[in-house]
Design brief:
One of its GO terms (cellular component) is cytoplasm. The chain is built from two helices and eight strands, in the order ββαβββαβββ. By secondary structure, the chain is mainly β. Strands 1-3-2-6-7-5-4-8 form an eight-stranded mixed β-barrel.
Length: 117
């Protein structure tokens, strides 16, 4: 397991991004202006870089990593931050984005987990 965090909060407009097949995550100590757009989680260490083909489980739903932006591993290690894009793209559109492929967007709930294997 490379990363395993418990969801501790959901910003006021964080789930609105799911209409664009995107989720923004941050450690729960994120600045206030970022908390409202983010799914917050407990801090944890990323033991290995996220790579294409890795399995990601979000609230019980499984996805596979299809692309990783140049900065995504760095920001995930430093701040627990990245944008998760549920579009299956093999070409990272933004440096802090991890693209995932799977059947449908997750149902985000406090107390559930985000796990990268």
């Amino acid at each position: 397991m490379k990363y395993n965090v418990k969801i501790t909060g959901i910003g006021d407009i964080a789930l609105d991004f799911l209409t664009e097949d995107m989720l923004i995550i941050f450690n729960d100590n994120a600045p206030p202006e970022l908390k409202e757009i983010s799914v917050l989680h407990e801090a944890s260490n990323l033991s290995e870089d996220v790579k294409i083909g890795d399995l990601v489980e979000i609230c019980g739903k499984e996805y596979f990593v299809s692309a990783v932006g140049d900065e995504a591993n760095h920001t995930l290690k430093k701040m627990g931050h990245c944008s998760l894009k549920f579009d299956g793209s093999e070409d990272p559109q933004l440096p802090g984005t991890i693209h995932l492929k799977g059947e449908s967007n997750p149902e985000i709930k406090i107390g559930e987990y985000i796990t990268i294997m």
